[in-house]
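Input record (one chain):
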Amino acid sequence: MRTVLLERDKILRRGRRLEYFTILWNSLEALMALASGIIAGSVALVGFGLDSLVEVTSGGALLWRLHQDDESRRERVERVALRVVGTCFVLLAVYVAYDSVRTLFARQAPERSVPGILLAAVSLIVMPILARSKRSVATSIERSAMNAGARQTEFCAYLSAILLGGLLLNALLGWWWADSIAALIMVPLIAKEGISALQGKSVALEAAPVTEGGIRPLRHRIVHRRLAP
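The corresponding structure, as predicted from the sequence alone:
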């Protein structure tokens, strides 16, 4: 039993380190994206940077949950965190949609942003690797927080791909409107994430017995859990 607990604690520490890295990365990502976006006049980059800021808030809540063993306290904090993050996502979706449409009608062409392209490319490499690492931890312990963190990290990877496409089309082909179109493509993804959070939905691993060494069976299924109002 002691061996099982020690192994579980080791896996939890790894999960926390992954979440600390995620918060640090998203913070740097937000600063770089916002600075590059403002300089280049890129709606997509600014939207991406603001999304990263929201992810920092969400990551902080997930990290707190990983440190808590009281299920009732975790649920209470999760409800508050989901509402705050959900509201931020919805407001961000409205802002990005408005600014994208305004830019298209005004025919405001953003400048080419090499820093933005490099940021999106690196993020597209880092995020999937980070998501897989979190998913590995989530399948080994009975903590839905890491699974939710993995899902959000995958969400960031999708946005990185969209951002990179828009920036490259503008830089290589001179398609100035590609930046705003990329931002508009982000809108439904951001809005969906926000609405899901406001509805109190989270992704959780169905409980499974812990085997020797604290490792859960790899075979599992993902279920949706609605938090109590």
